[in-house]
Amino acid sequence: MKSIISSVQKLLFLFFVFLQSPIGADVSGIASGPIVGYSTLKEVLVWVQTEKKSSVILEYSEIQNPKRKFFSEEIQTQSKTGFIAKLIANQVKPGTRYRYHLIVDGKKIEAKHAQTFQAQSFFAAGKNPPNFTFALGSCAYVNETEYDVPGKPYGGDYFIYNSILSKRPDFMLWLGDNIYLRETDWDSKTGFLHRYKHQRGISELAPLFSSVHHYAIWDDHDFGPNDGDSSFWMKDTAEEMFKLHWGNPNYAKEGIYGSFTWGDAQFILLDDRTFRTANNNKVIGPRQILGEKQFQWFVNSLAFSKATFKFVAIGGQFLNPNSVYENYATYPEERNKILSAIRDLKVKNVIFLTGDRHHTELNLLKEDGLEPVYDFTVSPLTSGAYPVTEKNPLRIDGTLVEQRNFGLISVSGNRGERKLLLQIFDAKGKELWNREIIPSP
What we know:
Elements: H1 2-20, E1 30-39, E2 44-50, E3 55-62, E4 65-71, E5 75-76, E6 84-89, E7 97-104, E8 107-109, E9 116-118, E10 132-137, H2 160-166, E11 171-175, H3 189-199, H4 205-211, E12 213-217, H5 235-245, E13 258-262, E14 265-269, H6 292-304, E15 309-314, H7 332-345, E16 350-354, E17 361-365, E18 373-377, E19 405-412, E20 419-426, E21 431-437
Parallel strand pairs: 10-11, 11-12, 14-15, 15-16, 16-18
Antiparallel strand pairs: 1-2, 2-6, 3-4, 3-5, 3-7, 7-8, 7-9, 10-19, 13-14, 17-18, 19-20, 20-21
């Protein structure tokens, strides 16, 4: 009789525990991620955030040889760094794809979505570089009703991330406004941590994050207040939080600028906030976005690069000559310095990748006897789209898009015959336009 009572008590206790647990609660201990970060020939980064202090290990194996397991070093997540771990797979082979799992507090977490990454392919001098494709976009808003402006929700069409995944890109480049800090966020480290966690909590992002590599720059809404500049009192915290939450392979000591290569392309990631003169400050000079130190680094990068294509990522439009909003034309002196450097160095195949404007367009600056320069603006992902009012003489006809969209760039061809295919898709994945760019020899 006593054993029967004991069994009933256990059943009642378990039933009580069940009632206290939220239905569908994630018992894995993972708060956000995993997110696949940078890829090189010899290592790959995987990012994850746990719910509490935990021990985290990355287990991975070649897709073609799943029985041989590799493991990262164990990391203890801590409250002061948002319970975030950056796990390094450093036993990879070039050109090889891997499947991975996370081990949290000794428990192997079953993947809800495909969890794969790749080490970049090696190509020796004189050999054909690999073909690859990357996605790009900017302005990603996720609604949070209690902190949003009343009225029609500003964010939407989150299924766009499933559409991006369906195109099977090798990686995605986030061009700024990747989160939208609210007034409740940018005054504290706690606020920054909340916004990143909330932004990454939507289910549509998880499959894209877990199987496609990701790189990022920022613009004002993931830096601080709207149109923020170097006077922002929390810019050091903003920088700390950006570097904590993204898996770029490198960052400057001050600011978030850096660079990476994929195949025969170099990606120069610029910081348009840390050193920026206030938009309305016309009484001191020189007015700047990059600042002298970053400008010198940028020009040196262009001069040194042997890459077929030089992609330059920056938050706001660069080529558009209209001095409106936060276009680089509102800082004409520094814009002209950059264009003069490109001309004087005779740098070939420079393509700026930009966001911010809540519309998409392809701009081309082509001057007699000089190398053409492109600016591919891709915006917005899930934020509201804005109609375009200014006339832009550099816009290529047929490339203006005034709805939620994303871009895809494919790099292909044998050595000496490389080319780019630029495509724009709507939120559902339907192609809106495409253009081919043949590089200068």
